[in-house]
Request: fold
Amino acid sequence: MKTAASLTAALAFSALSGCYVVPGPEGQYWYVIPGEQGTPATIPPPAAAGAAMPLSLPVRLYPANEEATRTGVLTGTVVNMMTGKGRFQLSYQGETLSGEATRVDGDQRRGVASAYGPTGVFMSCEYQMNSPRQGAGTCTLSNGAKYQVHIGS
Reply:
């Protein structure tokens, strides 16, 4: 029994190496893992045995109108919590926009997402997942820039 506990602790430690823990909502502690381009992705503590673990996915936004071509392709990350919710971050013109994604009630594939930056820039998205690891949709920023979004690799 002691060996199983030691093995479990070692696996948990190795899975979390390179990350740090911060206080989260409702007294929970959240794990922050360095993400793409140094942007951290925040996920909740590991779930109980048998529960689906959060999945971090790359996000790419391709310009779909003239306003968006000024910034080119944007990249970020989304963490699929496997609960119908997700958290995402992306860099836009030097600032980090952070937000959440939620599946539409009654449709396990469609969802909406919103993000906000410190200077007031905001983004609204609609997407559809074809699996927990891949999806596509559209995003519009507060300045009118429109993007086609691809989720996953």
